[in-house]
Structure formats: structure tokens, C-alpha cells
Specification:
Blueprint (H helix, E strand, L loop, with lengths): L2 H20 L5 E2 L1 H10 L4 H14 L2 E3 L1 E4 L2 E4 L1 E3 L9 E3 L1 E3 L12
Antiparallel strand pairs: 1-7, 2-7, 3-4, 5-6
Helix pairs in contact: 1-2, 1-3
Length: 106
């Protein structure tokens, strides 16, 4: 396993742990919801993006899509984190799939 793969696995575990603590299954969330946990882990932005992509692929989260004309677009809202100055954040929904950190079988 490469160092990059280990970093991405660690980032995914940090994300899943943060979701377990801060987001109930079925609830909506943005990066602002889990920012403190991700920042505490000192993850690079690329690691965080990779973790979200892996969580989507693994079925733990799904992007919230809204209809726009004939297609669906990923819902975004302004960040409430002052340094982000209102940067748009994607909205996601935590699925019902249990995370390893809940102690439930996947």
C-alpha cells in the first residue's frame, strides 16, 4: 500500500467518524458540519475531497441533487465559516449504511 493510499484511507475513516458523531442517517450535511473534525485531523484539501468521493462510492453519503431544467445539479449553499467568505459548499445526505465506527455490520 502506498503512502497516498494510506492517507486516503485515513481521511475516509476521519470522515466516517465525523459523520457518525455529527450527522444522523438520512440527515443533510456540508463540510461546515464536520469541519472541526476534519481540521483536527490536519487533512489536506485533496485528502478531504478524496474522502468524500470514496464515501459516495462506498454508499455512505450521496450528493443532494436538484432539478434544473432538464438535468439535475448538485445542491450548494454558502459556507458559514468566516474565512471561506461564503464559498459554495456541496450538500450531501448521509445514507442508512452503517459506518465501521458505529459497531454495526456494513
Amino acid at each position: 500500500m502506498t503512502a497516498r493510499n494510506r492517507d486516503h484511507e485515513r481521511a475516509l475513516q476521519v470522515l466516517l467518524d465525523a459523520l457518525t458523531v455529527h450527522v444522523a442517517p438520512g440527515d443533510l450535511w456540508t463540510f461546515d458540519t464536520i469541519r472541526d473534525a476534519m481540521d483536527a485531523a490536519q487533512l489536506q484539501p485533496a485528502q478531504t475531497r478524496a474522502a468524500v468521493t470514496q464515501a459516495i462510492a462506498g454508499g455512505w453519503v450521496e450528493p443532494v441533487l436538484l432539478p434544473l431544467g432538464s438535468r439535475d445539479v448538485h445542491a450548494c449553499i454558502p459556507s458559514t465559516h468566516p474565512p471561506a467568505r461564503g464559498r459554495r459548499l456541496g450538500v450531501y445526505r448521509r445514507t442508512q449504511r452503517p459506518t465501521a465506527s458505529t459497531g454495526d455490520a456494513a
